[in-house]
Design goal:
heterodimer, A: mainly alpha, two-stranded antiparallel ribbon, 24 helices, 70% helix, 3% strand, globular, B: mainly alpha, 63% helix, 4% strand, elongated
């Protein structure tokens, strides 16, 4: 088996295991070499299905190379390179190892040709990425990480059982277009939806991302959700249901982003909003809309990581990213300020920046396909989202001077932000290079006088509303508050209910235990050992742990299979 | 450049963006976009709607920062 038969995900995953083994001064070299090796690996792939493996009688295709997988594999590797440079100042190898393994898992997943391989890498992204959430300081990061892990593993478990049901129904594990007509297909759809932050399943995103370390969020923002967009595009392109789901995802986060005080949480809500654009693109299902979704995933990864990097630098230097505590930082961090403004210009779709050339493809596809309601929501977002987008650079770097003074971001952070910013401007000025990489041939020209003027009108008038409100002191000023989201249901009343049930069970158990010890003595002890809840015979095993073990077995099998070739 | 100049500049830029519409040939994809100043007016209304609804939303969902810790 040649290297061209191995999934490029393994290059990053196996390489990441070497990071903690190296002495400190060699680690940065490896961290940069790994994504570069990933690029070399990608360049050596030839289109088609490769890496066929037999496992438990199943035919697996571990490497499927086509324009979709190459585009997403490429942008994931680029994101890994940028994040690796951004993380060079961190001494502990833990985050770099987890981050690189996470990137490798995402790359492995996009090259998966069957649902079981997809499941293995899908779960690996969950397990590796939670380390990055936990790397954020404090008990909040730990708790948010636990909630994040539960949701992510639930998504993997659904995918596992969905894949099994799908195989029973169709006799094949191939990961291709799936029709929503049976339990298996719905489970897979839901698994993708959870990772894609569909409305009501979205809360893990604004919950966990802002709690991760400054480096962790940069990694996190790139992979998980875009992997889900890729999976939806692969499996459910043209599924009408995705259009209203996407429209809801586009709309509701804007309101939350506007009133949120934690600026990284503002970015998390805006990430959710951007995912909605991609989901609508996938749902419309025409070549233009799918190209738009793919292009938007590409540009989005770069400008979103740029924005998270700039706020990460603020967090690293100042220790907070709350709008109420910041302001005037352009004096201390001029370069970071410029990079943040470039990120904000890109995300808001300013002409000549990257967001403009991808977002407008989806808007055009919606209009051309006659999806006027979706088009209206997208237009609303294109205009109104400018207010929260403006808020990030404005409250962090300008607004009233908070009096905080600090050093400029470390050099490695500036280099990473510089690379991402260069791509944001480069793609905006010369979109042809990106269009040439898209899954289908592109006959789309974003730059006409009419289109550019329309976009400037949208942004200028939205900016005017922002400026007037700030000047009049009527902007919904940021206060030291948090905002409840749908997760309140299970973090609030749901948790109370669970505690109540646990208390009742505990009391019942104590009563039974007391009765047993009085009446039956040692025999009761014997019975208890085997028959009580948690006894040897009655211990319940979570289905999640079963899927985890299957995943580990399969991964070990793949590893030995490759090593044996 | 101080904040006041920037603020005035923004008003002027909005005016120019509207005026330019008289000079260029409009190519748009929906009928409603043919209306003069559609994108500007739409952005004004959308932003105003956003701020109004978000202010109401804040009354419903905002809690002190230690809300979940104290539960």
């Amino acid at each position: 088996m040649t290297i061209a038969e191995l999934t490029p995900g393994l290059t990053l995953i196996l390489g990441s295991l070497l990071i903690p083994l190296l002495p400190g001064r060699l680690r940065p070299i490896l961290m940069i070499l790994l994504p570069l090796a990933g690029f070399a690996h990608l360049a050596n792939l030839s289109p088609g299905d490769h890496g066929a493996v037999q496992f438990l009688g199943l035919d697996l295709v571990t490497l499927r190379v086509d324009r979709w997988s190459l585009l997403f594999g490429g942008i994931f590797t680029l994101a890994a390179l940028i994040a690796a440079i951004y993380a060079l100042h961190v001494r502990s190898p833990l985050q770099a190892t987890a981050g690189m393994a996470y990137a490798g898992s995402a790359v492995g997943a996009v090259f998966a040709g069957d649902l079981m391989t997809l499941f293995v890498f899908w779960e690996l992204t969950a397990i590796t990425s939670v380390v990055l959430v936990w790397a954020g300081a404090g008990p909040n990061a730990y708790r948010a990480g636990m909630r994040y892990l539960i949701v992510q593993v639930a998504s993997g478990t659904l995918l596992f059982f969905g894949a099994m049901a799908q195989m029973n129904a169709t006799g094949s594990l191939e990961f291709s277009r799936i029709v929503l007509d049976g339990a298996g297909s719905w489970m897979i759809f839901l698994a993708f939806g959870i990772k894609c932050a569909f409305p009501l399943f979205h809360t893990w995103l604004p919950d966990a991302y802002p709690e991760a370390s400054e480096v962790g969020t940069v990694f996190l923002s790139a992979f998980t959700t875009k992997l889900a967009v890729y999976a939806l595009a692969r499996g459910f392109a043209g599924t009408d249901l995705l259009i209203p789901i996407g429209a809801a995802m586009v709309a509701f986060p804007i309101f939350f982003a506007l009133i949120e005080n934690d600026l990284r949480r503002v970015l998390a809500y805006s990430l959710n909003n951007q995912l909605g654009f991609m989901v609508i693109g996938v749902g419309i299902g025409t070549e233009l809309s799918l190209n738009g979704a793919a292009a938007h995933a590409f540009t989005h990864i770069l400008y979103k990581s740029l924005l998270f990097m700039s706020l990460g630098a603020v967090l690293y230097r100042v220790g907070t990213v709350k709008a109420t505590d910041l302001g005037g930082l352009y004096k201390s961090m001029p370069l970071t300020t410029v990079f943040c403004v470039i990120g904000a210009a890109s995300i808001s779709g300013m002409p000549f920046f990257s967001g403009f050339v991808s977002k407008s493809m989806i808007l055009s596809a919606a209009a051309q396909g006659g999806h006027m309601l979706a088009w209206g929501v997208l237009m609303f977002a294109a205009a109104a989202m400018f207010l929260p987008d403006l808020k990030v650079p404005f409250f962090a770097f300008f607004a009233r001077d908070s009096g905080k003074r600090c050093e400029e971001a470390p050099t490695n952070m500036l280099v990473a932000m510089g690379i991402a910013a260069a791509f944001c401007i480069g793609v905006g000025l010369a979109p042809g290079y990106l269009y040439a990489l898209l899954p289908y041939a592109v006959a789309y020209e974003p730059y006409s006088a009419s289109h550019v003027l329309a976009q400037f009108q949208l942004l200028l008038f939205a900016g005017l509303v922002f400026a007037v409100l700030v000047r009049m002191g009527r902007y919904p000023s940021d206060k030291r508050l948090i905002n409840l989201d749908a997760d309140w249901l299970w973090r609030g009343p749901g948790m109370d209910l669970l505690k109540g049930v646990a208390r009742v069970l505990q009391i019942g158990r104590e009563c039974v235990g007391a009765l047993m010890s009085i009446k039956f003595g040692t025999m009761a002890g014997l019975v208890a050992r085997h028959r009580l809840p948690d006894g040897l015979l009655l211990r319940s095993w979570p289905t999640g742990s079963m899927s985890l073990w299957v995943m580990l077995m399969l991964f070990a099998y793949l590893l030995f299979y490759y090593l044996g070739q | 450049m101080n904040a006041r100049t920037l603020y005035l500049g923004l008003w002027i830029a909005c005016g120019v963006a509207l005026a330019l519409e008289l000079l260029i040939d409009k190519h748009v994809e929906t009928d409603i976009e043919h209306w003069f100043g559609f994108h500007g007016v739409f952005a004004l209304l959308a932003s105003a709607f956003l701020v109004l609804v978000a202010s109401l939303l804040r009354r419903v969902v905002s809690r002190p920062e230690n809300y979940y810790d104290d539960r």
